[in-house]
Give the backbone structure.
Amino acid sequence: MIPPPDRKYSRSHIWAFPVSDGKIRVGLTHVPGKFLGDAVSVELPYRETEVAAGEPIGLVGSSLTVFEIVSPLTGTVADANSGAEIVPRKVTRDPYAEGWLLEIWPSDLGEMDSLLSADDYEKYSEEG
């Protein structure tokens, strides 16, 4: 799977995509799904939770392991994808669409500039 070019990516395998009203939608990339297999649980922060770039904000679990979700941005949680919590396998089967995790109101949109382009993320994920 190739990462969509319309997003930015963190080295912790999280994508970020501007949606509406200044919010940034975030989700797991396809890379963790390779070793997780089907997700069986998703734990996300509540709305209005303050999050910080580089800090853990949730978990995606499978029958094999647990993956820690690390926030790509600092801000406030605007929304969590309840569909991903109800049907966790969406997170690994459809990571760039129905499997999105959160929407964040960023404190500083400039943090998006520190994230990787799709091409750079693809090179990074192939190295590791």
Q: What stands out?
A: The chain has a mean pLDDT of 95.
